[in-house]
């Protein structure tokens, strides 16, 4: 893969009140966008983060913003890696709508009619389960049962216990974003996992800068009220993290294919 070194994008945005958002002194946050089955890129980005933090006395917080499965070739490998980080960090692994889809399919095989449109076949294959040949209920029941047997217990527990958000300093982390006009403490799960244009087009001061994935873009995006770090890794080969230290905001990412 070309361009193994991280691409470093520097910049600083001020909040609508005119004050730069910050994380507490002595802390550093790395928030990683949607992995989508690219265990190779996750490994590469974690190595970059580990190299950056070597010798640092900062407390390092590693935030993963959801969507670890589907679309890419190695969903199972991504979950294995997240369950075995072996890094001196405080990890905050959040739920994305694709992890929710796994749980929804296990609860109701008919959900495959929806999940199948956005990468389910890739996830099943990574767990050694043949995707359904049709969407008839007996077929989907059989596939659901085979999938349930194939998922290791620690993977199932992983999916079931993922939190929806995390807050630190002047930042709020969630997979998709937040509902404008609703206090952060009152956000609903469906919006944290699925919201898109109402959030992306909003110029509202949410109280904290929202760091999110979910909506891919060619480059990471920053405005006064949000930071988006989904750069379509499963297609582009660019897995991105925003690095937050004090009032600094910068990006590192893997190289492109």
Distance between the termini: 6 Å
Q: Helicity range of the residues?
A: 25-40%
Question: How many separate domains make up the residues?
Answer: 2
Query: Helices and strands, in N-to-C order?
Result: EEHEHEHHHHHEEHHEEEHEE
Q: Assign an overall shape.
A: globular
Question: How many alpha or pi helices?
Answer: 10
Task: Outline the fold blueprint.
Elements: E1 9-11, E2 27-32, H1 39-53, E3 59-64, H2 75-83, E4 90-93, H3 97-107, H4 112-115, H5 120-126, H6 137-150, H7 153-161, E5 165-168, E6 171-174, H8 189-194, H9 197-200, E7 209-212, E8 221-222, E9 226-228, H10 233-236, E10 240-245, E11 248-253
Parallel strand pairs: 2-3, 3-4, 6-7, 7-9
Antiparallel strand pairs: 1-11, 2-10, 5-6, 8-9, 10-11
Structure in words:
The radius of gyration is 18 Å and the shape is globular. The chain has helices at residues 39-53, 75-83, 97-107, 112-115, 120-126, 137-150, 153-161, 189-194, 197-200, 233-236; strands at residues 9-11, 27-32, 59-64, 90-93, 165-168, 171-174, 209-212, 221-222, 226-228, 240-245, 248-253. It is 32% helix and 19% strand. It has 10 helices and 11 strands. The chain is α/β, with parallel strands linked by helices and 257 residues long. The protein folds into 2 domains: 9-95 and 163-253, 4-Layer Sandwich (Purple Acid Phosphatase, chain A, domain 2); 97-161, no CATH class.
